[in-house]
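step 3/5: co-fold with iron/sulfur cluster
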Amino acid sequence: MYTETNKGFTIITNFGCDQHCKYCITRAHPILKNQITDESKIDWEYLEKCISETTAPTVNLSGGGDPFFQWEKHLDFYNRVYEIAKKYEKQLDVHTRILPSDELISKFRKVGLTVEYWNEKQFNTLKDRVEKGILLLTKIRVIEVVGTDFTEDICKNYIKKIKGIGIPQITFRQMFGNKKAYEYWNELSQKISGEGILFLKDGEYHNYYFTTENKVFPYFFGYSEKDREEWKKKYEELEQSCA
Ligand code: SF4
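step 4/5: write tokens
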């Protein structure tokens, strides 16, 4: 488990996304600036150097968009990252909403899979893949980002439903840039607990290699706590205009 003082290493891709979340963290992002990852422009030599130097035992893929969006088009990218990680005895993790082929998923030690409580289609896809043996290929931790609509009853039912299909680990993540949801998470975290249940406070737990910039940032929103706070406020304003 990474912390703010013992950080993991994350590669940020932006291969796109078709989810249209209301509070998309990617859309107004100051580093991504809506740029899409161009695989031909990745500085593989520098990325390998960064992977070789991180003390983290895992390399994580995340977005900007979904790292598995149109995954069939990016197999060379995943294979190359996998080979580099293996060379330095690191394992791969990924944060996604998408479950790709068994062959690809088996390259990953662990999948942090966002499954919104209302998304029956996605839940059924996960259930189907569990029945077909995906947990023999990788570990899955299901993630729900806590909004104010996620009541205590919904939360309890969600835990029951996810655990009922054989997923033992569930994370409830504090939402960034939505003040009400941010505070509501505190309330909910006091009421719910259990084996495998983690309430993850919003924070900076990784160093981020942005593939669109070929640079490492110590914060998802830049270089300092000040950058982060500034963007948190900006996202709160975006949320108000969305509503
Ligand atoms: S899944 Fe992520 S990138 Fe896609 S719309 Fe939602 S917040 Fe934005």
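step 5/5: annotate
The mean pLDDT is 93.
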